[in-house]
């Protein structure tokens, strides 16, 4: 990892890891995988890892070159805009990595920022917040200012797909040389051989077969309300079929449950958050993974499904054809009949199903967190030289 790094003088690198682990959902996965692997790979520099109270004890990576700092400010808060610059200055950092756009407007060190998507500027909607209209407009304006500031001031920008890179260039007129694409990876838990106790996992979460599966959050752009409504039509031809929506119970999932109860009670299941140790089994026993999202910067769960031998039916929007390639069936996420047809094909055509599974295994192998971390570390080195 260090071979291309010419300046051997020790530097102090900070990483904002407040999203680290399950607390941060998809961002938490990215942050954890990058932080753990970067720290293991770099034998030269000192690292300061900024954590939140919910994951401070969860981060257990220890070493003489690693310092943990508790940040008493939640992400997206006004407090982080004041506290993070103070902590960065106090730690005398040479470089700071923000794994998300929430970079302080004043940052007293060079920084790298990861942009996962531009959903807030592309698809603003009040349905994605619990705030009243006035406060939402204020918060949305502040978000836009912070995103623009982060992109304009960063030494380097990390994008998680070519789609996101092009989106950044299109919206903010950034020099493409400042942006590096580092594709995400598949967690090691999802690369194990098939297990014999998969059925027990389904019993634990009261999941009934056969079922279509979705894993992730329930934000409006995920298009899950539409999925629920289309599922009612799918069941007319497949009355035994269930729809399983896996995700941590929050305001958005609570709202979705109320909609499901009115539309299709009994065949739409909400098992809540499922840890990786059990999630592989849920993927493996699914009839198909369905991803109806309107906008994605990367889209990790469909790849996890592929790594577990689950055929994937995906939206054809934004980054999904780039990430999933020829290993998925695609549909227009606003075309009801098209989605019904694709689901029916996977359920009824065993040859097609097996073809998708085989292609999915190959597609998932293209993505590596180790490679992503190596690229990230190389970006640090480029800035530090």
TrEMBL record:
<dbReference type="InterPro" id="IPR001296">
    <property type="entry name" value="Glyco_trans_1"/>
</dbReference>
<dbReference type="Pfam" id="PF00534">
    <property type="entry name" value="Glycos_transf_1"/>
</dbReference>
<dbReference type="GO" id="GO:0009103">
    <property type="term" value="P:lipopolysaccharide biosynthetic process"/>
</dbReference>
<keyword id="KW-0808">Transferase</keyword>
<dbReference type="Pfam" id="PF13439">
    <property type="entry name" value="Glyco_transf_4"/>
</dbReference>
<feature type="domain" description="Glycosyl transferase family 1">
    <location>
        <begin position="208"/>
        <end position="360"/>
    </location>
</feature>
<dbReference type="GO" id="GO:0016757">
    <property type="term" value="F:glycosyltransferase activity"/>
</dbReference>
<feature type="domain" description="Glycosyltransferase subfamily 4-like N-terminal">
    <location>
        <begin position="26"/>
        <end position="186"/>
    </location>
</feature>
<dbReference type="InterPro" id="IPR028098">
    <property type="entry name" value="Glyco_trans_4-like_N"/>
</dbReference>
<protein>
    <recommendedName>
        <fullName>Glycosyl transferase family 1</fullName>
    </recommendedName>
</protein>
């Amino acid at each position: 990892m260090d071979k291309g790094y010419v300046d051997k003088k020790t530097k102090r690198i900070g990483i904002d890891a407040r999203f680290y682990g399950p607390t941060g959902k998809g961002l938490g996965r990215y942050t954890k995988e990058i932080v753990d692997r970067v720290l293991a790979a770099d034998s030269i520099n000192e690292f300061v890892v900024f954590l939140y109270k919910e994951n401070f004890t969860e981060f257990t990576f220890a070493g003489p070159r690693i310092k943990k700092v508790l940040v008493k400010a939640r992400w997206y808060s006004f407090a982080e805009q004041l506290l993070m610059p103070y902590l960065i200055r106090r730690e005398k950092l040479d470089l700071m990595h923000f794994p998300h756009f929430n970079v302080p407007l004043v940052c007293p060190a060079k920084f790298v920022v990861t942009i996962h998507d531009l959903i807030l500027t592309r698809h603003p909607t009040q349905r994605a917040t619990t705030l009243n209209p006035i406060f939402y407009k204020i918060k949305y304006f502040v978000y836009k200012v912070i995103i623009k500031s982060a992109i304009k001031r960063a030494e380097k920008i990390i994008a998680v797909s070519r789609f996101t890179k092009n989106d950044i260039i299109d919206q903010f007129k950034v020099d493409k040389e400042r942006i590096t694409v580092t594709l995400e990876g598949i967690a090691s838990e999802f690369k194990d051989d098939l297990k014999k106790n998969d059925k027990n996992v389904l019993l634990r979460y009261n999941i009934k077969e056969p079922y279509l599966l979705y894993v992730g959050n329930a934000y409006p752009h995920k298009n899950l309300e539409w999925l629920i409504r289309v599922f009612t039509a799918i069941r007319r031809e497949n009355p035994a079929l269930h729809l399983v929506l896996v995700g941590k119970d929050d305001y958005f999932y609570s709202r979705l449950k109320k909609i499901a109860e009115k539309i299709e009670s009994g065949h739409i299941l909400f098992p809540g958050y499922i840890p990786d140790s059990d999630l592989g089994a849920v993927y493996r026993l699914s009839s198909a993974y369905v991803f109806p999202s309107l906008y994605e910067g990367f889209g990790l769960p469909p790849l996890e499904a592929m790594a577990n031998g689950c055929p994937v039916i995906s939206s054809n929007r934004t980054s999904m054809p780039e990430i999933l390639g020829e290993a998925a069936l695609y549909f227009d996420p606003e075309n009801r009949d098209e989605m019904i047809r694709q689901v029916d094909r996977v359920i009824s055509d065993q040859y097609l199903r097996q073809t998708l599974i085989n292609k999915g295994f190959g597609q998932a192998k293209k993505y590596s967190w180790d490679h992503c971390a190596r690229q990230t570390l190389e970006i640090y080195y480029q800035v530090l030289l």
